[in-house]
Design brief:
The chain contains 23 helices and 29 strands. By secondary structure, it is α/β, with parallel strands linked by helices. It has 3 domains: 275 residues, Purple Acid Phosphatase, chain A, domain 2; 157 residues, Glycogen Phosphorylase B (Rossmann fold, 3-Layer(aba) Sandwich), CATH 3.40.50.2000; 135 residues, Glycogen Phosphorylase B (Rossmann fold, 3-Layer(aba) Sandwich), CATH 3.40.50. The chain has an 8-stranded mixed β-sheet. It has a 6-stranded parallel β-sheet with strand order 15-14-18-19-20-21, with helices on both faces. Strands 24-23-22-25-26-27 form a 6-stranded parallel β-sheet, sandwiched between helices. Strand 23, helix 16 and strand 24 form a beta-alpha-beta unit. Helix 18 packs across helix 21.
């Protein structure tokens, strides 16, 4: 079992938390960047029957250039040797920075076994290959001079980081880790070129192991790579992370980012400790399980992709609150989220960034909190609520567009899925619009040799069965084959009675959903109000051409006429799509990547956070002086009084600092 434990879960209790095994790497003793004091504090609060030191414990590269060995580094070695004397089994696996010790593999020094690699057997019997991992870093393996240069550059970045943030503080800007940013960029390049994780997973299979535990790249992670569990222990230079296996067999990433109570630590060290952890993004959303829709699937996939980019996603969602069914749409639960409850959750989660996904109760209360505390936040425009409401109630759309405009224009940036939606919103007065496209899992959604719904032509719809989806336009068509609908919603029972010849297959997920797509000949998308249409990408990835109206969403996704057909006459579009090449549909879907979508989300969020919240709209208010003083007002052609006010000192400094905008990156 895998589990990630955040810094808030680390209990600095008087006792020692015991584990079955602890895995530690990349201490880099002998360097100024080593967080030896924090590691000693960690050892005081954690113990285990087995210790694995997975490389780069002592940095011989740096020692060759000049000895730096304070007492705290000596204390670390003494502490480890003391644990061995008390009965702890300890294995040391040398890495590239202490590769000189590889000449002594198979030997035992002071009770510490030195091995090139080893196998750890978990409680559940799974075998984990333990190795440092530098063997699969193409820079270290084939261009050591470049690795040494990168090591020197990284050290320089750590030194520059402190001075860089001093300048930022002069201008009232928040802390930002230059060294963590550069490290992330360089290491991701190495991982991408060398296919680091995939190579390690293959090595684990070669050793007959079901998992691999390594270090080297200074980025703690737990993920499934094919059939292999990949675990990286991180480092003790910036992120201060370790991996632990509990007595129950649960693997945890421990992020040790706070000093022990009573332990004095210099400010730069605290900054580096905080900078090394994954940046936390809180997504406030009213759309969550058990709902099955594109919004939920998008954020689920974003949460999976974000750790590779140095971020972790948590959710402020309806399951955290008491809920009520939404009128006319009981499948959607509306959270009873008050201001105090929202503030409590946000302060407990301690995010670095806040993103609001929906305009429901949770979104509204989170927006209120952010505006009140002047916390920069971003929003997403996923749903055309004005059209949805107009389809149910006789109310003008412009009223609800006005409410949505007010909601989103108060944010630092609004993410939109397609250019046509952005153009439409801009024309309606929406500001700070940023593009955020979507992706598709091309491994799950792929062509398959299945025909779940018979050999006749199958015309498929997947999504919510609701009035705003315009499904009747599809069901009213006279088509030469079978109509199949996958999904559920408030209109399902009504349509079943009206269209008994259509097959309503119910909601499906995962492999069952992918097989339903692959069993179709044409995917029909009749909606006139969707902002993107993730289901179109899933169908295309399965090799199923799409037919749709030429409206926002479809006309942005179906840019290749070989992949789909657009037309005001939906029947003609469907029949045209029936003759299209499934291979061309699949090729078009391969252009969309969830990794690129997640990167775009993160980049937008960082840019918007640096821009900050827009200024509040000016409001004319009568200025009331002290008792007995005349009102200092100006008249504008009538009796309305307009108060005069000076530009605040903060605004003036902001204008002065605008040429130094590069500091806010």
């Amino acid at each position: 079992m895998l589990k990630k434990r955040g810094e808030d879960d680390v209990l600095h209790e008087p006792g020692v938390r015991r584990y079955r095994a602890l895995f530690i790497s990349d201490l880099h003793l002998g360097t100024k960047a080593c967080q030896a004091e924090a590691f000693l504090d960690f050892l005081r609060c954690h113990d285990a029957s087995q210790f694995y030191l997975i490389g780069d414990i002592v940095d011989f590269w740096r020692i060759k250039r000049g000895i730096y060995w304070p007492q705290s580094h000596n204390d670390v070695l003494q502490k480890l040797l003391r644990k061995v004397r008390k009965g702890t089994d300890m294995v040391f696996i040398p890495g590239n920075h202490d590769e000189a010790m590889r000449d002594y593999c198979g030997m035992n020094f002071g009770g510490i076994a030195i091995e090139r690699n080893t196998i750890h057997v978990g409680v559940d019997g799974r075998r984990y290959l333990i190795m440092h991992g530098d063997e699969f870093d193409v820079v270290v393996r084939y261009a050591k001079w470049l690795a040494l240069f990168g090591d020197w550059s990284y050290t320089l970045a750590l030194w520059a980081n402190t001075h860089f943030n001093v300048v930022r503080r002069w201008f009232g800007m928040p802390y930002w880790s230059l060294s963590a940013y550069l490290k992330q960029k360089v290491k991701r390049a190495v991982n991408y070129i060398g296919e680091f994780e995939t190579a390690l997973a293959q090595e684990a299979r070669r050793h007959g192991a079901q998992g691999v535990i390594c270090g080297h790249i200074h980025h703690a992670a737990m993920r499934q790579v094919g059939d292999v569990i990949y675990i990286n222990t991180g480092d003790w230079v910036e992120s201060c992370t370790a991996v632990a296996e509990t007595e129950e067999g649960i693997f945890e990433i421990i992020r040790w980012t706070h000093p022990h109570p009573g332990m004095s630590m210099p400010e730069p060290l605290v900054e580096e400790l905080e900078a090394g952890r994954l940046m936390r993004v809180l997504v406030a959303t009213d759309a969550w399980h058990p709902q099955v829709n594109g919004v939920v699937r998008t954020y689920e996939r974003l949460a999976l992709e974000a750790p590779a980019l140095g971020f972790e996603i948590s959710f402020l969602a309806p399951p955290l609150f008491r809920t009520l069914p939404c009128p006319t749409y009981p499948e959607i639960r509306l959270a009873l989220a008050g201001p105090r409850a929202i503030a409590s959750h946000i302060e407990r989660m301690r995010p670095d960034f806040i993103h609001i996904a929906t305009e429901g109760p949770i979104g509204l209360m989170t927006r209120r909190y952010c505006r009140k505390t002047r916390w920069p936040f971003t929003t997403s425009y996923h749903t055309r609520f004005p059209e949805y409401v107009a389809a149910r109630l006789p109310l003008p759309e412009r009223w609800f567009y006005g409410l949505q405009r007010r909601f989103h224009n108060g944010s630092a940036g609004t993410f939109v899925a397609t250019p046509s939606v952005a153009a439409d919103l801009a024309a309606r007065g929406f500001e700070r619009l940023m593009p955020w496209s979507r992706g598709v899992d091309t491994e799950l959604f792929r062509p398959r040799k299945v025909r779940l719904f018979g050999d006749d032509p199958v015309f498929l719809y997947v999504g919510r069965i609701a009035v705003e989806k315009n499904i009747k336009a599809f069901l009213d068509l006279d088509l030469p084959g079978r109509k199949v609908l996958v999904g559920g919603g408030p209109q399902a029972e009504e349509l079943k009675r009206l269209y008994p010849d259509a097959l309503f297959a119910g909601p499906r997920e995962g492999e069952a959903l992918a097989e339903a797509y692959a069993s179709a000949d044409v995917f029909v998308f009749p909606s006139l109000t969707d902002t993107f249409g993730l289901v179109m990408l899933e169908a295309l990835a399965c090799g199923v051409p799409v037919a749709a109206f030429p409206v926002s969403g479809p006309k942005d996704v179906l840019t290749d006429p070989k992949a789909g057909a657009l037309g005001s006459d939906l029947k003609e579009a469907v029949l045209a799509a029936l003759d299209l090449d499934p291979g061309a549909a699949r090729a078009h879907a391969l252009r969309y990547s969830w990794e690129n979508s997640a990167r775009q989300f993160i980049e937008n969020m960082m840019e918007a956070h640096n821009l900050g919240l827009p200024k509040r709209r000016a409001r004319f208010r009568r200025w009331r002086g002290k008792r007995g003083e005349p009102k200092k007002t100006a008249r504008l052609g009538g009796n309305r009084a307009v108060s005069f006010s000076c530009v605040s000192l903060g605004d003036a400094l902001g204008e002065f600092a605008s040429p130094l905008k590069w500091l806010a990156t």
